[in-house]
Amino acid sequence: MYNLPALEAELENTAFAGMLHFVAETDSTSDDAMAAARSGAPHGSVYLADAQSAGKGRGGHAWQSASGEGLYVSVVLRPQAPQAHWSLLPLCAGLAAIEAIRDVTGLTPDLRWPNDVLLGERKVCGILMEAGSDVRSQPFAVVGIGINVHQRGFSGELATPATSLDLETGGTTSRQTLLLRLLESLQQQTASLADEAAPQRILAALEAASTWVRGRRVEVHGPQASVGLTDGLDQHGFLRVQTATGIVTVQTGGIRAAHMD
């Protein structure tokens, strides 16, 4: 379990001060955060659970969320930034997760666009970004982050083989420390969106953190299904893929390594 008083104390000087909402189990922290955001929950509201009975990943996939095994958290975001920069929020969340994992464990994660965090070929973290507007017609985004921490085994039916921080380090990772570092990094990343140079900085950081966004042969899954070679990111953070018929700019969906014929 988390030490909630200690968490609150550590968050005192952040955007998350007094914004922590913890339950032992819920259907989905993202559903909780979305409902709260639609009712006007402020920027920085954090929804945290020890277990989820219906954890969600991108594309309608389920996220295994056994009690006490992983970090399951969703955050309401209303960044004070130009609306044009909001499309970079998924990348900000991915960078925050990578920084937190690296700083707490010493591991070197990779980021598969848009925001699957991998250790080698195995997925350790998934991020779901949802958006909407509240009762005052004010826009918001909710970032849901699931990190495998203590798990020792996974279903063999996963689209990408999974791993956990403990499996990779051979030790025991503190979920509390990981959560604090994640929120600190998320605050830094989202606050930086107000800067005019934010897109260039974030895109450069992502290219440096990912082996997937340039020169990788991939299959694109989703509305823009195709096969080709990744060719970097456009100014909105969308992935460019060079296919046999030209450049495809992937705005939604996901990618997997393409098998050579």
Order of strands, main sheet, comes to: 1-2-3-7-6-5-4
| Strands, count | 12
Radius of gyration: 18 Å
CATH superfamily of the largest domain: Bira Bifunctional Protein, Domain 2
Total count of helical runs of at least 4 residues: 6
In helices, the fraction of residues equals: 25-40%
Structural class: alpha+beta
Percent range for β-strand residues = 25-35%
Number of domains: 2
Report the CATH C-level class of the largest domain.
Answer: Alpha Beta
For the biggest sheet, the summary is: 7 strands, mixed
Spatial shape? globular
CATH architecture of the largest domain: 2-Layer Sandwich
- Unreliable residue runs: none
The CATH topology of the largest domain corresponds to BirA Bifunctional Protein, domain 2
Mean pLDDT comes to 91
Distance between the termini: 48 Å
Helix-strand sequence: HEHEEHEEEEHHHEEEEE
Could you walk me through the main structural features you see in this protein, from its secondary elements to its overall organization?
The protein is α+β, with helices and mostly antiparallel strands and 261 residues long. The model has no long low-confidence stretch (mean pLDDT 91). It folds into 2 domains: 205 residues, BirA Bifunctional Protein, domain 2 (2-Layer Sandwich); 46 residues, SH3 type barrels. It contains 6 helices and 12 strands. The termini are far apart. Helix 3 packs antiparallel against helix 5 and helix 3 crosses helix 6.
